Amino acid sequence: MAGNSFGTAFKLMTFGESHGESLGGIIDGCPAGVTLDMEAIQKELDRRKPGQSAIVTQRKEADRAEFFSGIFEGKTTGTPIGFLVRNSNQKSKDYAHIKDTYRPSHADFTYDKKYGFRDYRGGGRSSARETVCRVVAGAIARQMIPGMQFNAYVSQVGSLTLEKPYKELDLSLTESNPVRCPDPQMAAVMERQIREVRKAGDTIGGVITCVIQNIPPGLGEPVFDKLHARLGQAMLSINAVKGFEYGSGFDGVKLRGSQHNDAFAPDGTTLTNHSGGIQGGISNGMDIYFRVAFKPVATLLQEYQTIDKEGKAVNLKGKGRHDPCVVPRAVPIVEAMAALVMADFYLLGRLSKI
Questions:
Q1: Which of 13, 86, 160, 218 has its CA 20 to 30 A from that of 26?
Q2: CA atoms within 13 A of residue 115's CA, in its CB half-sphere
Q3: pLDDT over 80 (residue 93)
Q4: Residue 198 — φ and ψ, nearest 5°?
């Protein structure tokens, strides 16, 4: 299997499966001398871990990172950082009924056709549990980049949309509710919607908005490695993501060029930010903001029809512990992937000046 690494100068390779002994990763390229706040790393893992509220999967995992290389006396040494996160609450028997059956909109069929064999326990390598490794690496990336701030939040659940732009929101309220929406009134409505969907054995999708601030101009590479292209790749690599837009996005097509252009102020900032902080694939120093769309979780706790390996129609019903809506737990994952991209370009920018 290829495609297990992400990044160029700051690189993460992950390993492990949902119901294996552990998941883990190797971070290559982190500079020496970075003092790591281990509590901050654990805090990010706690934001992503299962069982944290009544509206997410009730799988119970401590999700504690164990580091075994690249760190000495609380600082990075410049050598590869190896870590793992152990699995302790697997219930593999919950997946025995899909051993020879393909669940709709899962990776069951495609993995089987590509590899001729698959780990059906929780989806194996295709499980969103793999993202625990991204959160560890993202937490380290954030501590490596001086000054940059990453704030993601849930801005839509199903058709319930938070219309306020991020500058009108108090993003410090994001963690004040289980939905991770910084508008308390909208968060309460979204939570009721998720609970109703869960009770029906169904699932629902949503959108996460992410804002990156305090970015120096000049990050990103022209042509194929544009900053927004790499952010798009990062977000689209997350399980269940179906769409990515930055800046004015699709709504920008409604404007004329005279309305959409970001006029300059004398200090080089722009009076508007339809560009989303990126022009020509390179950061311009303004806020970078983007939206990530997540589909409804594919596992349904209700009966549906599908096929087995022989192509025969079978009735199936999901078992086990699953998220009725993935977006609340995906907020720290979006932030982590954004941090990995920005750390990569930050190091590439430093290397280009040597």
A1: 218
A2: 15
A3: no
A4: -65, -40
- Whole-number Å distance between alpha carbons of 181 and 171: 9
Q: Mean pLDDT across the stretch 103-110?
A: 83
DSSP-derived letter for residue 182 is: S
Of 128, 120, 127, 122, the C-alpha closest to 100 is 120
Residue appearing with tokens 């252009």: 261
Three-state DSSP state, 252: helix
Distance (Å, whole) CA 203 – CA 211: 27
Show the tokens assigned to 9: 């100068």
| DSSP-H helix ranges across the chain | 38-48, 108-115, 131-144, 184-199, 227-236, 257-260, 327-352
Closest Cα to residue 331, out of 43, 7, 17?
A: 43
Length of the chain: 354
> Cα Rg for the chain, rounded, in angstroms?
21
State yes or no: pLDDT of 121 exceeds 80. no
Rounded to whole angstroms, what are the CA distances from 131 to 44, 136, 252, 264, 334?
Answer: 12, 9, 32, 39, 10
Nearest Cα to 326, choosing from 354, 276, 351, 292?
292
Between the ranges 43-52, 61-70, 131-140, where is the mean pLDDT highest? 131-140
User: What's the DSSP call for residue 170?
Assistant: -
**Tokens 């999708």 — which residue?**
205
Task: Give the C-alpha separation, 69 to 46, whole Å.
Answer: 22
Query: How many CB atoms sit inside 10 A of residue 79's CB?
Result: 13
Nearest to 325 by CA among 350, 295, 284, 354: 295
Span 302-317, pLDDT tens digits: 777 888 888 888 887 7
Tell me which DSSP letter residue 237 carries: T
List the one residue out of 213, 293, 282 whose CA is nearest residue 249: 293
What percentage of the chain's residues is helix, strand, coil (to nearest 5)?
A: 35, 25, 40
